[in-house]
Amino acid sequence: MSQVAEEPNEYVQFWNDILADKFERFRHILMQGLSYHSDTPLRTLQVRPGSNILDVGCGWGDTALQLARMTGPEGRVLGLDCCDAFLAKGREDAAREGLNNTEFVAADVERYPFRPEYDLALSRFGMMFFQNPVIAMRNIRRALKPGGRLVFIVWRRLEDNPWLGVPKDIVLRHLPPPGEDALTCGPGPFSMASTDLVSAQLKAAGFDPQVTFTRNDGPVMVGRTTEEAMQFQLALGPAGEVFREAGPEAEEKREAIEADLREALATYQTSNGEVVMQSSSWTVTACNGTSPA
Ligand SMILES: C[S@@+](CC[C@H](N)C(=O)[O-])C[C@H]1O[C@@H](n2cnc3c(N)ncnc32)[C@H](O)[C@@H]1O
Predict the structure, then answer these.
(1) Among 20, 72, 287, 292, who pairs with 49 as Cys (CB 3.0-4.6 Å)?
(2) Residue at 122 is within a domain
């Protein structure tokens, strides 16, 4: 019975089996190209030196390392991700920089046996992919000290994110939408776009009902060239999902799809050749009980 309980869920499996390699291929885009959405909140995030911090769904660990610098040698950061392949980069970067206050652990956030030891939990674009967000939030709350904060960054709606919507529309001109039984990495990038839904989820997980949503609109770099942007969009995100799910039909139509994507993405090319598009996220802040004065 305990063996069954340890089986990774289908989404965790998908991150490990399908997405890890694709993410690795486009790491510079996913890590640096989208960093606008964490740079702004992290600039204003108040971190007391010596704080214990949890980075949930930390991926390659760049935000965990930023937090490790902020909390300093008296503090501690745990970067947690269900995909061990990502964590090697975080461990390597921490060792190179001599950040001894950082640890990376491969685990499912819904199941990890947390103790109430963290002052702050942060997640950049992790929360939207958990199988059961309320169970994950409840478990993260268990990790927080009374008064501890959960701060997470999630995408707003597809309509507010042309960097994902424009390519998806183009691919849908050629291919059918993914079916109900499409393999996916979780509820999906827009699953936390609704402030009402997220407030209700946080409340159900036991957080203080006073939740703050800060909107952050800004540019993302989706490719150093039009060609790279086109390849990125066909591999990942909503356009990539349509393409992947269409299987052989997508391969038959590849040439025409690629040409249309290239043409559309070229209109977002900046003077240095990079493709830069608009995007929009929420930074959500919730507290485990009322925050200490
Ligand atoms: C979109 S990526 C964001 C990664 C990183 N925070 C960043 O901003 O670059 C989502 C991350 O959540 C992780 N993840 C998904 N489900 C998880 C789970 N149940 N427990 C822990 N991590 C999970 C994935 O492996 C992936 O690294």
Answers:
(1) 72
(2) yes
